[in-house]
Design goal:
This is Secreted protein. This protein is of the alpha+beta class.
Length: 169
């Protein structure tokens, strides 16, 4: 009887340890933190959206288009920077029209979203749109680095999305 109890204890203890180890591997590989495989695969789809190619005639693309998956917040992203060679108002008017024509719905507008002194920047998008994309909701932000005290000669477009709904402008 003692042999049977010892064998049961070893089997149950070993199975419990295997479950704990498997749970740890799952959590460390993105189960609780980071990007899911679906969101990692979503980034190239976002990078191919035509809205990222749209820009006023006076502006010029800068650098290469970027994309990836934000490991901290667990969402896919893609974006493009442009050289600001027209007024901010013209840029905002252009994207209101171009985004609507491409099926994006305006979710929010704050033409001058600079954070208050000594506060954290919560939302720096001057315009925020959303539309369905690849089985989830994509968010398009038009933003100006100068609102954060950086590069007054640029503006950016960024699209974010996540299959678990954690993306935003």
């Amino acid at each position: 009887m003692k042999l049977r109890a010892a064998a049961t204890l070893i089997l149950v203890g070993g199975g419990g340890m295997a479950i704990v180890a498997a749970t740890g591997v799952w959590a460390l590989s993105g189960g609780l933190y980071g990007c899911t495989r679906a969101d990692e695969e979503l980034a190239p789809t976002l990078a191919s959206l035509s809205i990222l190619d749209a820009h006023p005639g006076q502006t010029q693309p800068e650098d290469e288009r970027y994309s990836g998956c934000d490991e901290d917040d667990g969402f896919a992203y893609a974006g493009q920077y442009y050289r600001l060679t027209t007024s901010r108002a013209n840029v905002l008017a252009f994207y209101r029209k171009a985004a609507a024509e491409d099926g994006w719905r305006l979710k929010g507008a704050n033409p001058s979203p600079s954070p208050a002194p000594d506060s954290l920047a919560i939302d720096t998008s001057a315009l925020c749109f959303e539309k369905p994309a690849a089985g989830t909701t994509a968010h398009l932000a038009v933003w100006f680095p100068s609102d954060l005290g950086d590069s007054p000669d640029d503006y950016g477009l960024e699209v974010t999305a996540s299959h678990d709904g954690t993306a935003w402008c």
